[in-house]
Design the sequence.
């Protein structure tokens, strides 16, 4: 087969890939996503199957039987738990705009930039051999195919010059692809739809290609799988592969299962496709079984192909090439080309996604933090950093592939495909404990993550990487054979004398021992900062974790934030994002205040471009954040209970207010009533004053103008004048009296008073009134009335007032008034009853109010001043007693005065 | 909701089941070179358990999807 033909086929395939990616990006730009289905999502996760799977599994199966399988059983088990673990990672990452696994781990552990850098560094170191593996597979398969129809082992010794090495050109083309479709622009969501579409297509290509080879081998070459296995069973060397112990010890099996369980999440490219490139969380539900199903399908024919290779092909053929060399040996050029394409798709898919994922990490977590720290002044002057970001990523992609190529040329030749891949698995598996504990255990802290990942990595370097260097001659071979410094216990692949394990198992055991031990130990022995604790709580607690805007306080200017985001995303994108944010909050962009919410929003936008740790550093440059003290966090936690307390107090206050309002309303009504009464009084008083005045004046005028009036008439007129004058003076004296009592200016003459005597005197004083009305007055007093402490004149005034009132309301004929006195141990009771019209119950209280007159004012002129009873009440109450009325309409009225026999002390003065 | 936690528990149960069935020492039982219908028993056993595991996860996940779909109606 000529090289131009193979090159043409490869170029055609890669051209198709570019077209699909281009189309995918176009559709994404138009908003009609090509990758919006769970099947495409599952296929993109199948980037897990690389040339390792395509070529290497067969090679491993030809030596260890089913020993290749744990690498695929592990992910199946992990996906059983996907609903718990992957979904949680997915939600957290979407909420915090996580862009890589380094970002994720750093975000969990207090947004620590150093931790992000460490993870990125380990990922790069760990994945370089893995990329080298892919390049090697491309290079080898290309060379093998060139020899068609000869099935010859490519000369292992020596490399062609770099420019003639297929791997170099493959690396170049793949770098181009990754740069084109992986770094088109800085996007806050880091979705590369074109790339994902191409990867999904590649997964389909490698699966179909492998199944085609498998079916051909089983059905065409051997006339049935039963036949194939029967022939293998007949060969004792091959029959041994049916046994479990062909796969090594049980420890190796378990170790590989665990390794694969971790790797399917921790490999940068797996994190990229599962988490970062996920466009819809619901796609995960179906991918949970579609992806394992894909793994099962692509592994179904591995063992038959391996057995067939060993049965059919001459010894000395590299088992890693069986997939390609079997069709060639059967003289099936087209099938060979299909197998080659399958292998190419497996390799390219991995390299593309891995390099994009690594470049994001290198840029966000290694290069940018350094640039921002060292050349902050220089960067601050640059208005637009998005170009710089893209350049850094593009250079990173080229560099990663170059490193992979170099590693392949130097080291890779000496290892089988699977061994190289497992070295990478063991490196990235160091992230797994930090992720797992980070997701489900709050107390795992930053220092512990450092210690765990760092310690595990150091052990990995010592037990796996350095021995591989020793093997390739970079280190003396004695390092592997007799340990560092010749100390036997430090032999890298039998540390402390632990021999008999596979190097991978050995390394995994020691590194995980150190990793998990340090993670647990340090977490238990040290505490967490406030930021660590809040981040841990977000990751462990919330299923849709997000930062709490209340956890930010400080000052910043909107323009600064906008400019900052603009420098990384481009000003137009930043402006658009901010206006959308303002719109979501229903306010104008100009009215946007810089609060925790907005700062967090800006930080997330930046996190999408440069990672959460760097984003935090950048946001801190434009905001003056005051450190959040523990007491403030406690206060935030307390807020809930405070809110309850506030609402309780508010309710209390509102109840108080309500009752105060009711009181005020009552008082107001009373004031209005008093006001009305006052008006009435004024008019009553003016009327009362005017009536006698008018009478006095008119009679005086008559007397003055008619000196010849006869003496009898003159006397009569004079009598009226005198009477009206008396009434006038009585009224005035009462008003004055009232004012005096009210103002407390009365000089109380307190002495022992005999109420019976007072009653008799009052009766005598009012006897004229009774005679005028022809009413009868009865007086009933016990013989020995005890004395009370009171003002005699005032009590006289009260009694006279009550008597004159009584007689006033007596019927014109048969009027009867009864005064009675009674005494108990404490007090004395004076009652005055009449047989008048009585008082309605609603007036029982108001009759004692000032200016209040009971009676129909229409039937005649008012008979009193409306002040008498008010004055009585004032006097009685001043003396510590009580006055009230008992009456029913038409049954007479009975006024009662109860006085204490001894004046209460308070009133004594 | 009880549905969610039951589904979660079932998946954890599957995981534990798979962990036991797909690892030694169970594998030692089937991995003594026996043949079944002319095929290696270990090979058949591993793929059968694997397939059953996937089918069980699929049943749980798809029921969930259907329920979500009807919920949305």
Sequence:
């Amino acid at each position: 087969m000529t090289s131009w033909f193979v090159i043409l086929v490869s170029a055609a395939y890669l051209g198709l890939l570019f077209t699909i990616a281009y189309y995918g990006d176009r559709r994404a730009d138009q908003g009609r996503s090509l990758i919006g289905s769970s099947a495409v999502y599952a296929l993109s996760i199948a980037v897990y199957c690389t040339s390792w799977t395509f070529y290497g599994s067969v090679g491993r199966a030809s030596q260890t039987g089913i020993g290749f399988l744990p690498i695929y059983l592990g992910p199946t088990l992990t996906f059983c738990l996907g609903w718990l673990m992957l979904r949680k990672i997915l939600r957290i990452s979407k909420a915090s705009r996580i862009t890589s696994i380094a970002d994720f781990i750093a975000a969990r552990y207090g947004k620590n930039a150093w931790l992000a850098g460490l993870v990125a560094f380990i990922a790069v170191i760990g994945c370089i051999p893995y990329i080298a593996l892919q390049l090697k597979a491309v290079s080898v398969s290309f060379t093998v195919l060139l020899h068609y129809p000869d099935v010859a082992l490519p000369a292992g010794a020596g490399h062609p010059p770099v420019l003639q090495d297929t791997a170099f050109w493959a690396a170049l083309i793949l770098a181009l692809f990754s740069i084109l479709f992986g770094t088109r622009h800085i996007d806050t969501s880091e979705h590369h739809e074109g790339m994902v579409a191409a990867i999904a297509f590649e997964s389909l290509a490698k699966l179909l290609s492998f199944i085609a080879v498998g079916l051909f081998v089983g059905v065409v070459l051997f006339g049935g799988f039963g036949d194939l296995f029967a022939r293998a069973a007949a060969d004792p060397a091959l029959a041994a592969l049916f046994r479990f112990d062909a796969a090594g010890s049980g420890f190796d099996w378990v170790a590989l299962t665990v390794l694969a369980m971790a790797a399917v999440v921790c490999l940068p490219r797996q994190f990229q496709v599962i988490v970062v490139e996920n466009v819809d969380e619901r796609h995960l539900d179906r991918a949970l079984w579609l992806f394992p199903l894909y793994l099962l399908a692509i592994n179904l024919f591995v063992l038959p192909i391996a057995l067939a290779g060993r049965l059919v092909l001459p010894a000395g053929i590299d088992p890693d090439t069986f997939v390609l060399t079997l069709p060639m040996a059967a003289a099936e050029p087209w099938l060979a080309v299909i197998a080659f394409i399958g292998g190419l798709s497996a390799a390219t898919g991995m390299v593309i996604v891995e390099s994009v994922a690594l470049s994001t990490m290198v840029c966000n977590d290694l290069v940018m933090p350094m640039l921002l720290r060292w050349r902050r002044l220089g960067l601050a002057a640059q208005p637009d950093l998005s170009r710089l970001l893209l350049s850094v990523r593009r250079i990173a992609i080229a560099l990663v592939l170059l490193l992979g190529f170099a590693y392949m040329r130097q080291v890779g030749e000496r290892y089988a495909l699977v061994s190289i891949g497992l070295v990478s698995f063991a490196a990235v598996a160091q992230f797994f404990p930090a992720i797992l504990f980070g997701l489900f255990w709050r107390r795992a802290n930053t220092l512990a993550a450092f210690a765990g990942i760092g310690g595990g990595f150091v052990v990995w370097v010592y037990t796996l990487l350095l021995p591989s260097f020793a093997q390739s001659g970079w280190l003396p071979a004695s390092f592997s054979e007799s340990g560092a410094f010749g100390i036997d216990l430090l032999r890298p692949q039998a540390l402390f004398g632990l021999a008999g394990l596979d190097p991978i198992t050995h390394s995994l055991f020691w590194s995980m021992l150190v990793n998990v031990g340090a993670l647990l130990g340090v977490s238990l022995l040290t505490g967490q900062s406030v930021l660590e604790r809040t981040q841990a709580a977000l990751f462990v607690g919330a299923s849709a974790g997000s930062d709490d805007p209340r956890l930010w306080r400080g000052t910043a200017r909107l323009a600064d934030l906008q400019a900052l985001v603009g420098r990384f995303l481009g000003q137009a994108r930043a402006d658009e994002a901010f206006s959308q944010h303002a719109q979501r909050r229903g306010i104008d962009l100009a009215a946007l205040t810089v609060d925790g919410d907005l700062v967090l929003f800006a930080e997330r936008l930046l996190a999408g471009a440069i990672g959460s740790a760097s984003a935090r550093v950048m946001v801190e440059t434009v905001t003056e954040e005051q450190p959040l003290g523990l007491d403030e966090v406690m206060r935030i936690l307390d807020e809930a209970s405070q809110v309850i307390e506030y609402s309780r107090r508010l309710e209390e206050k509102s109840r108080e207010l309500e009752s105060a309002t009711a009181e005020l309303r009552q008082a107001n009504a009373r004031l209005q009533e008093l006001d009305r009464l006052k008006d009435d009084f004024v008019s009553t008083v003016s009327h009362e004053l005017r009536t006698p005045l008018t009478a006095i004046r008119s009679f005086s005028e008559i007397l003055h103008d008619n000196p010849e009036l006869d003496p009898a008439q003159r006397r009569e007129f004079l009598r009226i004048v005198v009477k009206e004058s008396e009434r006038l003076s009585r009224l005035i004296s009462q008003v004055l009296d009232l004012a005096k009592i009210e103002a407390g200016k009365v000089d109380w003459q307190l002495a022992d008073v005999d109420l019976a005597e007072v009653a008799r005197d009052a009766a005598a004083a009012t006897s004229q009134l009774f005679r005028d009305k022809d009413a009868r007055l009865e007086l009933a007093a016990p013989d020995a009335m005890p004395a009370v402490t009171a003002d005699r004149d005032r009590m006289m005034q009260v009694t006279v007032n009550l008597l004159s009132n009584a007689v006033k309301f007596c019927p014109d004929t048969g009027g009867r008034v009864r005064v009675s006195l009674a005494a108990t141990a404490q007090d004395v009771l004076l009652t005055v009853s009449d047989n008048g019209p009585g008082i309605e119950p609603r007036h029982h209280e108001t009759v004692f109010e000032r200016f209040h007159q009971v009676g129909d004012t229409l039937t005649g002129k008012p008979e009193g001043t409306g002040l008498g009873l008010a004055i009585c009440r004032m006097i009685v109450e001043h003396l510590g007693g009580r006055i009230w009325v008992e009456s029913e309409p038409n049954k007479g009225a009975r006024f009662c005065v109860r006085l204490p026999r001894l004046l209460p002390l308070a009133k004594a003065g | 909701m009880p549905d969610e936690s039951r589904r979660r528990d079932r998946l954890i149960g599957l995981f534990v089941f798979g962990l036991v069935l797909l690892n030694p020492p169970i594998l030692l039982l089937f991995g003594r070179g026996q043949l079944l219908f002319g095929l290696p028993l270990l090979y058949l056993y591993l793929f059968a358990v694997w397939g059953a595991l996937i089918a069980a996860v699929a049943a749980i996940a798809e029921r969930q999807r259907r329920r979500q779909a009807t919920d949305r109606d």
Notes: DSSP finds 35 helices and nine strands in chain A. Chain A has four domains: 7-421, 547-628, 631-713, 747-908. Residues 543-547, 856-862 of chain A have pLDDT under 50 and may be disordered. The beta strands of chain A are 554-555, 624-625, 750-753, 776-780, 788-791, 816-823, 827-834, 882-887, 893-900.
